[in-house]
Write a structure and sequence with these properties.
By secondary structure, this protein is α+β, with helices and mostly antiparallel strands. About 40% of the residues lie in helices and about 15% in strands. The chain is built from seven helices and five strands, in the order H-E-H-E-H-H-H-E-H-E-E-H. The radius of gyration is 29 Å and the shape is elongated.
């Protein structure tokens, strides 16, 4: 049971999800699970989703959703880090590529032995519709946790130390304004009390 509860929670960031809902869920999860990590990623819902979308438009090669959703993922993570008030958050970033198996179909077979046949096959593979098909879809994963994770479990990931939260200029100005307003109200109350004490009934 302990291994199940210690496993990180995976959350997919997609273009159709509301950022406010994603942030709210992540904040509640991190608050209620101080030792568990949450993994936010742009991986497709199913392994074959990316290649099906690529096959439907053979003439126009579109960027996969796993790549398009990366800026949205970063925005969600930055909002979570800014809004989380329960402590520091450790961040681990991972970048990878998804290979599309379907792109290898129909490729020209190149003989292993050197010779004229191999040379002709290589030339044929490098030109026209039978060029060497290479299709890889980049994706990103970001792990957030309230405690530092072991290096062995995050091999290949880049570590980002918890950020020092600084108060913005506008927040400082609001704070000074509120403090000044509070002092003014207190001063008015004290002045009112003094005036009330000076009133002598006749």
């Amino acid at each position: 049971m302990e291994t199940e509860t210690s496993e990180p929670h995976s959350m997919r960031i997609a273009s159709h999800g509301k950022i406010s809902a994603l942030v709210k869920f992540a904040l509640n999860f991190l608050k209620e699970n101080p030792t568990r990590a949450i993994v936010l990623h742009t991986l497709p819902y199913k392994p074959g989703d990316e290649q099906h979308s690529g096959e439907s438009s053979s003439k126009k090669r579109k960027i996969g959703s796993s790549t398009n959703d990366v800026p949205r993922l970063i925005s969600v993570v930055e909002i979570i880090k800014r809004e989380f008030k329960e402590g520091e958050l450790y961040q681990y970033n991972e970048l990878g590529c998804l290979d599309t198996p379907g792109t290898l179909q129909g490729r020209v077979e190149v003989p292993a032995e050197p010779g004229e046949e191999r040379q002709a096959a290589v030339l044929e593979a490098l030109q026209g519709k039978n060029h060497v098909p290479i299709q890889r879809t980049p994706y990103m994963k970001i792990t957030l946790c309230r405690v530092a994770l072991p290096e062995a479990s995050m091999a290949g990931a880049t570590y980002q130390a918890p950020m020092v939260k600084k108060i913005s200029r506008s927040a400082k100005a609001r704070k000074r304004k509120q403090a000044k307003k509070g002092d003014t109200l207190e001063g008015n109350e004290e002045a009112g009390d003094e005036d009330a004490m000076e009133v002598i009934p006749t």
